[in-house]
Amino acid sequence: MKETKNGCDLTNCYLCTHCINDWKPAITAHKTNFTVKKGQRIFNEGDAVTGIYFIFSGKVKVHKRWDDEKEIIIRFAQAGDILGHLGLGNDSTYPVSTTAIEPTIVCYIDLPFFESSLQVNTRLTYSLMKLFANELQESEKRMRNLVHMPVKKRIALALLTLQKQFGVTATGTINIELTKQDMSSFAAVSYETLFKVTNDFIQNNWIASNGKSIKIINEALLTAITLDLKND
């Protein structure tokens, strides 16, 4: 990562939007902005926690080792999101890794100042508590899906989740470009399974694909698959 003067304008990031205005000069004095190249790690699973990151622009994958050769993508983050907060526990290490999937700018706040921010700004503390609760609920759903959900249903749900989070472009494609490997890691299926199932979706005219771009053509049908309303 490379330090830059471009980035956080004290209006859009998670920290700034949940702090009182009188605290913003302190944020200015303590923040450092970094540019992150596509494919570059922001922090690694197991690293000691030194601070918290806030995304000003770009998109980031949050991922975790599954075994020695595989990883699972927990979620994707974008402008306005927070990274590194899962490392605030007693272990003091980041439990996940984060990697930019496009050129990204992040704002870094060291841990002592972030902890001071939590003590001063009750709205920030309350918001972070709700964020932890929501992420725990989503994590429990995801683990349940990994155990019980068939692969076709997982892939349909992954596509719908991405469209809900990132929206669509002017041409109707999901507004995030992912490699097939990242897509399979997010759906928690093998690359070969993803290739086969997405080809079936394309042949049935449920989705369209052009390189890394995917367009959902029949959202109602994909939704029906996730709800077990569509028979094979």
Automatic annotation (TrEMBL):
Annotated InterPro entries: cNMP-bd_dom (IPR000595), cNMP-bd_dom_sf (IPR018490), Env_Response_Regulators (IPR050397), HTH_CRP (IPR012318), RmlC-like_jellyroll (IPR014710), WH-like_DNA-bd_sf (IPR036388), WH_DNA-bd_sf (IPR036390)
Any one GO MF annotation of this record: DNA-binding transcription factor activity
Pfam families tied to this protein: cNMP_binding, HTH_Crp_2
Superkingdom classification of source: Bacteria
Domain HTH crp-type: 149-220
Record's GO cellular component terms: cytosol
Keyword set includes Nucleotide-binding: no
Keywords in alphabetical order: DNA-binding, Transcription, Transcription regulation
Gene3D superfamilies per the UniProt record, alphabetical: Jelly Rolls (2.60.120.10), Winged helix-like DNA-binding domain superfamily/Winged helix DNA-binding domain (1.10.10.10)
Protein name stated in the entry: Crp/Fnr family transcriptional regulator
PANTHER family on file: CRP FAMILY TRANSCRIPTIONAL REGULATORY PROTEIN, REGULATORY PROTEIN YEIL
Domain Cyclic nucleotide-binding: 34-135
